Structure formats: structure tokens, C-alpha cells
């Protein structure tokens, strides 16, 4: 468990995560509305070299970033509007993993379709404005997460 005191700390954790990402990685980011998922994603994308503020993929569902815009290809996915896990199959996420990392908000919409090698992060808002981050680390992330 890690306590994130404010949005700057949440974005900074996203930047730390960016340094650990490899093509094929999946990061599943869950939490209630307003918990800080997009803030973490923006910190990660800024660290990958994105100029300007990253847009939320809430309406487009997927925003794909590729060099030279960022140093590592990344698909930022928001599954909030997905009602049936089968809808996600049409997004081509499996194919994207060949050369890109995936950052998925609302992964619970996939139900049992989330890859077993995904790093699962959960952000929970506290009453004082701080965020509580917990995680589930698969073998492919051991030694990389949590950041030192």
C-alpha cells in the first residue's frame, strides 16, 4: 500500500510507472470516479514525452500514442462505457500488445477477460483528499513493482 497525498503525488507515481513500462505490458487501473486514475495516466504520459496534457479516453474509449509523440507506444484505454466484455474484443487490445503497452482504466468491465499478467493497481480516495494505492503484482512485474 502506498499513500498519495495529493494529485501531484499521483502524477509523480505515474511518472515512476512510465520508467518501468515495456511493450506488451498491461496496467489495469481501477477506482471510483474521481479517484485519480486519469491523473496517474497523465503523469505517466508526460514522463513518456507527451507534450501538453493527455486527454481522457472516456468518450473515444482508446487513444493510441506512438513515437515520436512518446518514447514507448502506449494505448490509453477507458472501458467505463463498455457494457459487455465482448464489446472490448472489437478494440484490438490483444493485437496492440505486440508492440505497445496498455494502460486500462475501468478494467473490471472486462470481467474475467483481463490478462493474468496485468499489473493491477487500485486507487481509493480518502476523506482527507489523499489517495490509497494498492496493487496485485503478477510474476512478469516482480522486481519492477513497486518502484524503489
Outline the structure in words.
The protein has helices at 7-18, 37-47, 85-89, 93-96; strands spanning 2-4, 26-30, 62-65, 74-78, 101-105, 119-125, 131-136. The chain is α/β, with parallel strands linked by helices and 148 residues long. The chain has a single domain (2-111), classed as P-loop containing nucleotide triphosphate hydrolases (Rossmann fold), CATH 3.40.50. Strands 1-7-6-2-5-4-3 form a seven-stranded mixed β-sheet. A hairpin with a 5-residue loop joins strand 6 (119-125) and strand 7.
What's the layout of helices and strands?
Elements: E1 2-4, H1 7-18, E2 26-30, H2 37-47, E3 62-65, E4 74-78, H3 85-89, H4 93-96, E5 101-105, E6 119-125, E7 131-136
Parallel strand pairs: 2-5, 2-6, 4-5
Antiparallel strand pairs: 1-7, 3-4, 6-7
Helix pairs in contact: 1-2
* Number of structural domains: 1
- What would you say the CATH architecture is? 3-Layer(aba) Sandwich
CATH class: Alpha Beta
Shape: globular
Helix content: 10-25%
Order of SSEs:
EHEHEEHHEEE
Percentage beta strand: 15-25%
Ends apart, CA distance between termini: 13 Å
CATH topology name, in short, is Rossmann fold
Low-pLDDT runs? none
- Integer-rounded radius of gyration: 14 Å
Strand order, sheet with most strands: 1-7-6-2-5-4-3
Sheet/helix structural class: alpha/beta
- How many extended strands? 7
Amino acid at each position: 500500500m502506498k499513500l498519495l497525498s495529493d494529485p501531484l503525488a499521483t502524477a509523480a507515481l505515474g511518472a515512476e510507472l512510465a520508467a518501468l513500462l515495456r511493450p506488451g505490458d498491461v496496467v489495469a487501473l481501477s477506482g471510483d470516479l474521481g479517484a485519480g486514475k486519469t491523473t496517474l495516466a497523465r503523469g505517466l504520459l508526460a514522463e513518456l514525452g507527451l507534450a501538453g496534457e493527455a486527454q481522457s479516453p472516456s468518450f473515444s474509449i482508446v487513444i493510441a500514442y506512438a513515437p515520436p509523440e512518446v518514447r514507448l507506444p502506449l494505448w490509453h484505454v477507458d472501458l467505463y462505457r463498455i457494457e459487455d466484455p465482448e464489446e472490448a474484443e472489437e478494440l484490438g487490445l490483444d493485437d496492440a500488445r505486440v508492440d505497445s503497452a496498455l494502460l486500462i482504466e475501468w478494467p473490471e468491465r472486462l470481467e474475467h477477460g483481463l490478462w493474468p499478467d496485468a499489473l493491477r493497481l487500485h486507487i481509493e480516495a480518502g476523506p482527507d483528499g489523499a489517495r490509497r494505492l494498492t496493487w496485485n503484482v503478477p510474476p512478469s512485474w516482480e522486481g519492477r513493482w513497486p518502484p524503489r
